[in-house]
């Protein structure tokens, strides 16, 4: 991850490989410079905008225009990044602009940014500099990520500015862990290895860690986790992470994340096309683990416990079958109709166990259904659960740039999930796909204890994508919804 630092040196005299300023788009004429660029513009005899326009700059969000300084300032390269119209340049526009600028300037050792809104600029810059190259030999055309990012502020010693930078760095560092885990191939990050990796990072961060292996899961009656893991040569795990603040906690929050390290669909096997992306089916658990690392660094006044059920869903002679009846951790008996609906099986056990901790709020996230992508696309997550939390979750996602949209759990979905032979059907009877995303939410609701406010975040699309990188999000793992989870925990700490 790129390192972050504050600088209060005049941008026109700051030693760096590149300096970056913001550019607002104008509907009536030439774009205009954002605050923070005045000294640099003066060094160019107030012709900086004219020069940028000659190079094609418009101020569109994320557009990066570069020009050689030719000795006008110490930095050999000057870049302007678009923020969009001034009236629309919110925190997310700044994040996207900062990420785009740092990505465009890869190969530079030090980059200085003078952009409005310190924390979004720092977050976007650090997140945008991420690269996953662990398994690829370096070539002559590769450009290394920016090593050091300097955020230009009026006073580098200001305590508020330091706090903003600390939070941005904690989130970006945690997101780097999450992205690395999700991007890792399925043959290297199987359940025991994933549990070990999370345990190592969490222990170093000062979190309490407990790992249940297959023997402990069997003894504890975790039928859903065990059933999904039956087909794999690598046994399942359940990881518990806990954070306790100093002094009195404002509330207790439980986080749960789906950790299917690879999903073939089991005996209900998936088509070959696109199956390689199923290494990302543990993105929910990775995001929760990353959120816990950030929480440990930020130290909010709230108690947080996380449960990460991990399994590999494989077809074999020992795999669970359509038609099986599985006794879950809660004692509920579930009729299995589709072994590719495995995520809800492991999550149900983890949710029931997390509820025994007596949380005030429970937030669960998972790459649960293709129905989420069909309904909301690749950039907007679906939110289900307690209606009292819908707006709180949506607002938290909006603040950090991870869009969420509340979805209902109507009565007709419950009717679809009845079983003639068990307490509950795993999917709709007859494999009816209508309301597929809602079916997953309803199933999970049956394992939430009475009195616990809860929310299910289906991030099947936003957590991982193979399309082009944009803003501060790379191809592959994005770490969504890590920052939303942290924002929710901080919100609970501040407001109960």
TrEMBL record:
Enzyme Commission number(s) of this protein: 3.4.11.1, 3.4.11.10
MF annotations from Gene Ontology: manganese ion binding; metalloaminopeptidase activity
Alphabetical list of InterPro entries matching this protein: Leucine_aapep/pepB, Macro_dom-like, Peptidase_M17_C, Peptidase_M17_leu_NH2_pept, Peptidase_M17_N
Residues that hold Mn(2+) 2 according to the record: 258, 263, 281, 342
Cytosol aminopeptidase domain location: 338-345
Cofactor note as given: Binds 2 manganese ions per subunit.
Keyword line: Aminopeptidase, Cytoplasm, Hydrolase, Manganese, Metal-binding, Protease
Assigned protein family: Belongs to the peptidase M17 family.
Protein name: Probable cytosol aminopeptidase
Organism: Actinocatenispora thailandica
Higher taxonomy: Bacteria, Bacillati, Actinomycetota, Actinomycetes, Micromonosporales
């Amino acid at each position: 991850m790129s390192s972050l630092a504050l600088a209060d040196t005049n941008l026109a005299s700051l030693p760096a490989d590149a300096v970056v300023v913001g550019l607002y788009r104008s509907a009536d004429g030439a774009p205009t410079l954002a605050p923070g660029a005045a000294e640099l513009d003066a060094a160019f005899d107030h012709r900086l905008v004219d020069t940028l326009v000659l190079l094609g700059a418009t101020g569109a969000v994320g557009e990066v225009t570069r020009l050689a300084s030719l000795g006008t300032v110490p930095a050999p390269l000057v870049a302007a990044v678009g923020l969009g119209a001034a009236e629309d340049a919110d925190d997310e526009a700044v994040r996207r602009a900062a990420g785009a600028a740092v990505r465009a300037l890869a190969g530079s050792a030090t980059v200085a940014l003078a952009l409005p809104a310190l924390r979004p600029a720092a977050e976007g810059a650090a997140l945008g500099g991420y690269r996953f190259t662990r398994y690829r030999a370096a070539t002559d055309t590769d450009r290394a990520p920016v090593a050091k990012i300097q955020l230009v502020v009026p006073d580098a010693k200001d305590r508020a500015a330091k706090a903003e930078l600390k939070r941005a760095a904690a989130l970006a560092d945690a997101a780097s862990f999450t992205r690395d885990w999700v991007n890792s191939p399925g043959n290297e990050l199987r359940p025991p290895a994933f549990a070990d990796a999370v345990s190592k990072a969490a222990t170093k961060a000062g979190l309490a860690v407990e790992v249940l292996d297959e023997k402990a899961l069997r003894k504890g009656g975790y039928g859903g986790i065990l059933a999904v893991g039956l087909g794999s040569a690598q046994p399942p795990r359940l990881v518990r992470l806990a954070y306790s603040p100093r002094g009195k906690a404002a509330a207790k929050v439980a986080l749960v994340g789906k950790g299917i390290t690879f999903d073939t669909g089991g005996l209900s096997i998936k088509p070959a096309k696109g199956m390689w992306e199923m290494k990302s089916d543990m993105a929910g658990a990775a995001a929760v683990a990353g959120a816990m690392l950030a929480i440990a660094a930020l130290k909010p006044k709230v108690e947080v416990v996380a449960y990460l059920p991990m399994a590999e869903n494989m077809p074999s002679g020992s795999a669970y079958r359509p038609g099986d009846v599985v006794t879950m951790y809660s004692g509920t008996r579930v009729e299995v109709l589709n072994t590719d609906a495995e995520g809800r099986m492991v999550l149900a056990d983890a949710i029931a166990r997390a509820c025994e901790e007596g949380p005030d709020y429970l937030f669960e996230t998972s790459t649960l259904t293709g129905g989420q992508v069909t309904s909301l696309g690749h950039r907007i997550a679906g939110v289900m659960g307690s209606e009292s939390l819908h707006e709180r979750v949506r607002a938290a996602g909006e603040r950090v740039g991870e869009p969420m949209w509340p979805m209902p759990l109507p009565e007709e979905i419950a009717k679809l999930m009845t079983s003639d032979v068990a307490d509950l059907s795993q999917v709709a009877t007859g494999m009816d796909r209508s309301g597929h995303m809602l079916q997953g939410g309803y199933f999970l609701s049956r394992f939430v204890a009475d009195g616990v406010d809860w929310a299910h975040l289906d991030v099947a699309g936003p957590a991982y994508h193979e399309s082009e990188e944009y803003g501060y999000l790379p191809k592959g793992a994005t770490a969504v919804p890590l920052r939303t989870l942290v924002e929710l925990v901080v919100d609970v700490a501040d407001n109960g």
